[in-house]
Amino acid sequence: MAPTTLTPRRPLGRRLSTFFYRHPKVTLVALLSPPLVWLGVVYLGSLLALVVQSFYRLDSFTGIVVREFTLDTYRDLFTQAHLDIVGRTAGMAAVVTVASALVALPLAYYMARYASPRVKTLLYLAVLLPLWSSYLVRVYAWKLILANQGILTWFFEQVGLKGVLDAVLAIPGIGGRSLSVSPLGMSIVFLYVWLPYMILPIQAALERVPKSLVEASADLGARPGQTFRRVILPLAFPGVAAGSIFTFSLTLGDFIIPNIIGNSSPFIGLAVYQYQGTAGNIPLAAAFTVIPMAIMAVYLILARRLGAFDAL
Fold it and tell me: How confident is the model at residue 197, as a pLDDT?
């Protein structure tokens, strides 16, 4: 009788890899479960908690949150003072978004169409380099630049345009005692901080525009300006819409720049910070957060119809 030979047992790692190879659906579930749990529990769960908190109210006598379903907080939210804050914030977000698109489009177009690989690398570095430094440091640096004794005011004095600067600062609604305490100065800082998030999506969209379409437009007699308006810009517009998602949403929720730059006019992010921290009115702060959530939900639906998600 021949002796039986035992097959050596394979290591556990080899058996697991074989199992996952033979069961791709199980592999997919194992890979996606951790991020989906994080997204569902931590991110969406926190948003749901904010929405639930917005239906509570703060007892005006004791200062304690009454955990009973009520619409009193939303009634307090939709007052003229709070609606002014919403309008001011949405207006600033729209201005920053349009300005970012106007500034980013020429640079992105040059990077995508004309820049050599070496120059393109340097431009990528120039666009991304500010993101490597501290957000607060950049904002405080701009506060010094825009101050009355800052380098920008000094430059206008040297070129003899101080009167033009004073005339702009005297315009109601955008001016102030100096650029560092004016809505105009705040928009400049917002533009500087969020500009990279507009440049990169537009540049990526322009990279995907076939050169054959541009050549065909020229062969048909179109001038460069006509080619840009009728061929390149429509195809690159999804990139503009994609970049606007970042610039609009980030401006809508930011509270640091309005707190450091500009006058004392509150924005949504600053109002949420003050109600949650100083006033301790968590239900009203939560109700305030529902407004940008609703605005961005509508904005994302419109951006999706414009093809923004294809450019991300």
Answer: 93
CA pair distance 120, 108, nearest whole angstrom: 10
Number of H helices, E strands in the chain: 16, 2
Alpha carbon of 266 to those of 9, 254, 301: distances in Å? 69, 11, 28
Do 280 and 56 contact (CB within 8 A), yes or no? no
pLDDT band at 7 (very low <50, low <70, confident <90, very high): low
pTM above 0.90, yes or no: no
Name which of 286, 305, 191, 204 is nearest 248 in CA terms. Answer: 191
Q: Which residue has the tokens 């021949």?
A: 2
Name the strand (E) or helix (H) holding 220: none
Q: Under a CB-based contact definition with an 8 Å cutoff, are residues 76 and 279 in contact?
A: no
Within a domain: residue 102? yes
Query: In this structure, are residues 60 and 265 in contact, taking their beta carbons and an 8 Å threshold?
Result: no
Contacts of 284 (CB under 8 A, 6+ apart): 58, 73, 76, 77, 275
Q: For residue 99, what are the domain limits?
A: 72-115+182-311
Per-residue tokens: 17: 């890899």
Choose the weakest-confidence range: 51-60, 97-106, 241-250: 51-60
How many folded domains does the chain comprise? 1
Which pair of tokens denotes residue 209? 């525009």
* 203: number of Cβ within 10 Å: 26
Separation between Cα atoms, residue 249 and residue 131, nearest integer Å: 17
Question: In terms of DSSP bridges, do strands 65-66 and 57-58 run parallel, antiparallel, or are they unpaired?
Answer: antiparallel
CATH number at residue 295: 1.10.3720.10
